[in-house]
């Protein structure tokens, strides 16, 4: 009662308190009585907290108002590899491993004590007495003290080492290639954006590399050997580029790698590194008793950092690599903006082939083949394609067939050529009868290897009611032996139907393919150097070579012709040495549909 009266008097004198002293005495007495009644419950609560504190799997440290540890539980001692008593007297921030860990604990403690802000689940490194460092999740909070308004810091620590290392491992796997350990395409994309960020006078270089013929290694020696070869390639590339101009190497996909450089350098300096890398790759590595060396093609682009974005750089490197492969592989190619501008024009042309075919911009162009013993008689008419472009004018097959190959339009163009050629042949036969020449269609490689070639030919012959003998199909050795198709089988069936098969040859090696593989060929066409050698005269060695070819062709019961004949004198020399027919500018470079009709009519009479 005396205590209540004393506190009531004190509070009554406090500025702002409006209650009378008697009422305050009554109020505080009630508070005291309540405290007496509830006091017995404090001991069980204290015991529960003590047991929880001691048995908790989470490390707990109780500190004083200055942040010094006054008590630590067993779990915290075990977590940090020491006795709990050894932690007494240490500052909470001092448990941090590195300076930034100490700073984070100090900042969290300051916010807790001055602002009452709790730091929840902050991951950092603490020192372990034996194992060095340990990743943990810490929580800083406070507990009320004995005096009203007082509070003391409490540090709670949970082991996060295993989960952190797992997360780091998963993160590493997400941005690194599992086979080589190099950064993957996603990581490389981020690195490229970082390299191009900001300004300055630095140069950036991007190098794309593809291993040439890797499929041969993979299929021939097995995927396991192929994987080891790729690891070897990765190691050699790292040894050349890592540490040079902030160089980094990545594996993009399959046998494709990329190198990124940034710094002060010139194109020749980058080229020198690329050449060093290509030389390193050629040096064999020995796997399973096999000394395996590889070649690679490289596309290089070098430019100022501020000159364009990642897309432009990637596109330039791809174009340079493609050009290196087209040039024969096992070499590098530096991106050339002027050449790229020309290529863009070509690719734009290739992109509209389908629309041009649908819009009727293609037409047949012919080249007559005459009998050299009787030049007024047609032996055959060779049919080809011409594109009348609305802006670029007339384009020959050599200008658009390579583009059609890239865009997948070779088959549609080949179908159209075959259909229109046989339609013209049917028209000639109706008009000129037996005097109508055969039509010869040179098959683009993609059409020659197409598994539906026989069906295509048969459909068009039937459609125009033509015998198969009216059609000559011309191809070359590359198409005949292309591994992607069953050309030999297709030609055998076409020969059985009666179609005349023609092989373009340039020498004895090509000619001997016919008996060696039992090719159902009836005509051979000499092309290239063997014909050009007789353009201006007769060299003894050249004539001997030609005569050997003619003699061998006769032994094989083949009819032999020539293409690319430029003059009547050249035609006469070929005739004297046994060539039966020829085509070229000595007759006509080309003829349109109407012109060839007139030519056939003239020859027919």
Notes on the structure:
With 605 residues, the protein is an alpha/beta fold. The chain folds into three domains: 56-165, PAS domain (Beta-Lactamase, 2-Layer Sandwich); 176-335, Alpha-Beta Plaits (2-Layer Sandwich); 348-604, EAL domain (TIM Barrel, Alpha-Beta Barrel), CATH 3.20.20.450. It is built from 24 helices and 21 strands. It has an eight-stranded mixed β-barrel with strand order 13-14-16-17-18-19-20-21, surrounded by six helices. Strand 3 (119-128) and strand 4 form a beta hairpin. Helix 8 packs antiparallel against helix 9. The model is unreliable at 14-22 and 24-39 (pLDDT under 50). Pfam families: EAL, GGDEF, PAS. Residues 202-337 form the GGDEF domain. This is GGDEF domain-containing protein. Residues 346-604 form the EAL domain.
Short description:
InterPro entries: Biofilm_reg_signaling, EAL_dom, EAL_sf, GGDEF_dom, Nucleotide_cyclase, PAS, PAS-like_dom_sf, PAS_fold. By secondary structure, this protein is α/β, with parallel strands linked by helices. The protein has 3 domains: 110 residues, PAS domain (Beta-Lactamase, 2-Layer Sandwich), CATH 3.30.450; 160 residues, Reverse transcriptase/Diguanylate cyclase domain (Alpha-Beta Plaits), CATH 3.30.70.270; 257 residues, TIM Barrel (Alpha-Beta Barrel).
């Amino acid at each position: 009662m005396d205590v209540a009266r004393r506190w009531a008097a004190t509070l009554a004198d406090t500025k702002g308190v409006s209650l009378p002293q008697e009422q305050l005495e009554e109020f505080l007495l009630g508070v005291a009585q309540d405290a007496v009644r509830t006091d017995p419950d404090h001991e069980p609560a204290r015991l529960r907290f003590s047991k929880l504190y001691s048995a908790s799997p989470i490390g707990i440290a109780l500190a004083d108002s200055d942040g010094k540890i006054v008590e630590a539980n067993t779990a915290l001692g075990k977590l940090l590899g020491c006795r709990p008593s050894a932690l007494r007297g240490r500052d909470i921030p001092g448990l941090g491993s590195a300076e930034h860990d100490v700073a984070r604990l100090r900042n969290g403690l300051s916010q807790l004590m001055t602002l009452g802000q709790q730091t929840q689940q902050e991951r950092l490194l603490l020192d372990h007495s034996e194992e060095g460092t340990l990743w943990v999740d810490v929580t800083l909070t406070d507990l009320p003290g004995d005096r009203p308004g007082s509070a003391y810091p409490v540090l709670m620590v949970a082991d996060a080492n295993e989960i952190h290392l797992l997360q780091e491992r998963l993160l590493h796997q997400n941005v690194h290639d599992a086979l080589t350990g190099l950064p993957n395409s996603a990581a490389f994309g981020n690195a490229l954006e970082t390299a191009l960020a900001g300004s300055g006078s630095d140069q950036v270089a991007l190098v794309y590399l593809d291993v040439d013929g890797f499929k041969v290694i993979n299929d021939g020696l097995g995927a396991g050997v192929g994987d080891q070869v790729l690891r070897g390639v990765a190691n050699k590339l790292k040894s050349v580029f890592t540490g040079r101009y902030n160089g980094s190497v990545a594996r993009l996909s399959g046998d494709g790698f990329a190198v990124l450089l940034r710094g002060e350098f010139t194109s020749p300096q980058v080229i020198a590194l690329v050449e060093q890398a290509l030389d390193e790759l050629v040096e064999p590595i020995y796997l399973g008793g096999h000394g395996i060396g590889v070649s690679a093609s490289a596309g290089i682009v070098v430019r100022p950092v501020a000159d364009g974005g990642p897309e432009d750089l990637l596109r330039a490197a791809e174009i340079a690599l493609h050009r290196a492969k087209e040039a024969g592989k096992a070499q590098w190619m530096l991106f050339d903006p002027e050449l790229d501008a020309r290529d863009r024009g070509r690719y734009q042309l290739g992109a509209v082939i389908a629309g041009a075919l649908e819009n009727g911009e293609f037409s047949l162009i012919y080249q007559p083949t005459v009998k050299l013993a009787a030049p007024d008689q047609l032996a055959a008419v060779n049919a080809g394609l011409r594109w009348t472009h609305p802006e670029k004018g007339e384009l020959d097959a050599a200008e658009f067939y390579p583009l059609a190959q890239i865009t997948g339009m070779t088959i549609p163009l080949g179908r159209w050529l075959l259909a229109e050629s046989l339609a013209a042949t049917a028209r000639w036969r109706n008009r000129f009868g037996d005097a109508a020449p055969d039509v010869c269609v040179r098959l683009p490689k993609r059409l020659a290897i197409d598994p539906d070639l026989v069906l295509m030919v048969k459909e068009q012959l039937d459609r125009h009611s033509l015998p198969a003998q009216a059609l000559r199909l011309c191809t070359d050795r590359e198409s005949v032996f292309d591994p992607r198709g069953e050309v030999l089988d297709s030609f055998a069936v076409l020969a059985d139907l009666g179609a005349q098969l023609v092989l373009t040859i340039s020498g004895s090696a090509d000619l001997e393919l016919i008996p060696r593989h039992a090719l159902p060929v009836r005509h051979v066409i000499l092309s290239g150097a063997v014909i050009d050698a007789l353009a201006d005269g007769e060299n003894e060695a050249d004539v001997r070579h030609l005569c050997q070819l003619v003699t061998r062709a006769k032994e094989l019961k083949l009819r032999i012709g020539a293409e690319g004949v430029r003059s009547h004198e050249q035609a006469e020399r070929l005739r004297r040495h046994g060539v039966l027919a020829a085509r070229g500018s000595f007759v006509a470079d080309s003829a349109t549909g109407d012109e060839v009709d007139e030519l056939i009519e003239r020859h027919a009479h």
